[in-house]
Automatic annotation (TrEMBL):
Name of the featured protein: WD repeat-containing protein 75 second beta-propeller domain-containing protein
Organism in which the protein naturally occurs: Salarias fasciatus (Jewelled blenny)
Major location category of this protein: nucleus
Compartment(s): Nucleus, Nucleolus
Keyword line: Nucleus, Repeat, Ribosome biogenesis, rRNA processing, Signal, Transcription, WD repeat
tRNA-binding as UniProt keyword: no
Amino acid sequence: AVAPGRIQPDSGMTSGHRVFLFLCCCRFLLCASGQCVKVFSTSTEECIHDLQGHTDLVTGVLLRPSNHLQVYSCSLDGTVRLWDFTDGILIKVIPTFGHWVCDTHPVCLTQLFQLVAVQLPQSGDQLAEVRELSAVLDSVGSSPAATAFGRQVRSPPVHLFSLKEDNKTGGKNTFTCISCHPKDDCIATGHEDGKIRLWRNFNHKKEYTYTTLHWHHDAVSSLCFTPEGTNLLSGGVESVLVQWRYNQPSQRDFLPRLGGAITHITVSPDGALFFTSHSDNKITIIQSCVKVSAVIQGLVKGESVRTELMVDPRSKALVLNGKPGHLQFYSLWRDKLLYNLDIVQQEFIHEAGLQQFEVVKAAFDASGTWLATVEERQLKDAELELNLKLWIFDNGTQSFVLNTTISAPHEAQITALCFQQAADSQTTVLVSTSRDGHFKAWQLAAPAPAHTEGPSWSCDFVGAYHGLVPYCCAFSADGSLLAVGFQEVVTVWSPASWELLATLSQPPGTVRDLCFGRLSCSKYLLGTTAGNLLCCWNLLTCSLEWSTSMEISLLLADPLSENMAAFCFQSGCTDLFVFKPSEPRPLFSHKAVCSGKVTRAVFAPREEMLESCEESSQWLNRSQLYFLSQQTDLMTFITKAEEDRMTDRRKQLVIDDSVAMTPFYLLLGKHLPQHQDRRDAASGLTPESTPLPQSSAAIKELLHTPAHVLPSTSFLCSMFVQSLLVSVTGELKTREQIKSSSSNTFHRAIFNPPTETFQKALK
């Protein structure tokens, strides 16, 4: 069953927001994520595999009917790939120049959206050539939700039945999604006006009938029948999963408040679990429409990212816009959302054209005690509404609580916000710049002795320069200088007295970014201009040190080193240059890191400094660079050693997930390796906490490697025996020491009382 669509080659297929789900045996959840396919464990919610190989957006994932341990994926790169998803191995690449995979055999959509059937090659080569390709139907809808396969796929004459785009009551009949009943000849279609139609008797020309179901107030985004066909699931922008009885459509069940608009629904093969993906990059695991059992939340994707990328000094989490009116705190290390902080504190209404408050600016102080946010709303034929809010970290709730709200802090839009970043400063100062031609310094005032409400913020200074508009500002690393860019003029101020110290000349062009140098380069101030210039001033001589012509879209400094990063936009792509202001050559450069402009990036400090890095990656020793692409994909640079550690960690997750929870497994202690280092460091080993012997790497490799990729048994036997031998170069125990060690071990095994875990295992 196919829903019609217009010819639009790029209608949403490259946004990166689409997530397509598939479940296998209730243990694994597969979803398309950017250019890869992620495999999650439904029990632990951990990502255990990242199937990488496609060079463009992955648009579909499908289990291979003849082997449920293998899966097909397809991509805008024009290939279909076959994977062993339990081991993360690429088996075959099939070039098809297509976009998508359907439920029975791979089907692709060309740039003209023509449905094409591909006969899969049976060769054993990894790169297989397609020899048979046949067109099925033209003018197919561009969305993967617009095609579904029923219980019997044949090649009968094509039957077309249509609806008028608008009906007499004002409803919009445009098709949005489609699903086929697994047992009966019935097709369910969703429509733009929120109605669902069940079509029957469509095999007979001009004799088809349909019944209408209606609950959704807006477009139906996804439909899915349960495996037995007893229920139909639907979802849309209301964030409510609706379960319809197939034979009793008047009976419905609802699961509300799922947090985001539902974009896709799928069901496990046994019907025990429902899965919904949402517009905010979230997957919800539901137990038969009764309750939410788990949530896999990625980086929350809203309509746009208005704030800068920031790192919370306390939690080391990445902070940026999240849900509407919120800031999200995202753990980069765990790749998980920590929490959303409600800034606007108003209910968000899903209605097109309704102007609501948005969080547009945010900044942390050096210690992470204070958070400043700016929210704005522009109503029709009304003045801009602005609120500046100051939040203080509460140790009791381990979150930020509102301390001060300043209504209308400026008379026009706020263009920049920054804290004085000196950690040893006696006072906390916040500076905001605005299109009203002023910058304001807000200072934290101690409470009066008679008041017990705590500290509050007030305006300490208002600055301006010849009526020019300030667009950017920055504090030096020690907090002794403030630089404010007034259109084409850079001014330097003293925060101690708010005296104008100097003005810096530069070639024509509005200053867009300002960054002070760090450590040995602290005497430099760098800025970018609208005239495509990167300028460096020497603060000791107040003169221009050097400049170069580059279309810099973003400039930022590493807080832990002298390094700076410049993202340069040219020929539709962004190049990255990492450099020190004092050296003429860049430390690192990378052409075309992503398509489009990069306007948001941040250096995230590492918990531990990297050791023994290659020369080309030494700039990553102290901090890791993260940036957002124009498609709002979060990207970063990692070293080869980090990539190997991530791979090993995911292999261990696969092992842990596949081991049954038996008494013997509990006896060995699942979490022993994780806590062993902590116990050793804290109190040392005791006779009662003697670790169990660790198995060799050869045994692990032998037991956990798929049998079809292992070498011959004769080769493995010699390798296995070698792993059991004691090296003659190592320190050998004497026979008496071995006897003594064996005797002590036997003594402990006989006379030590059984541990609690051992007693439970025996029971």
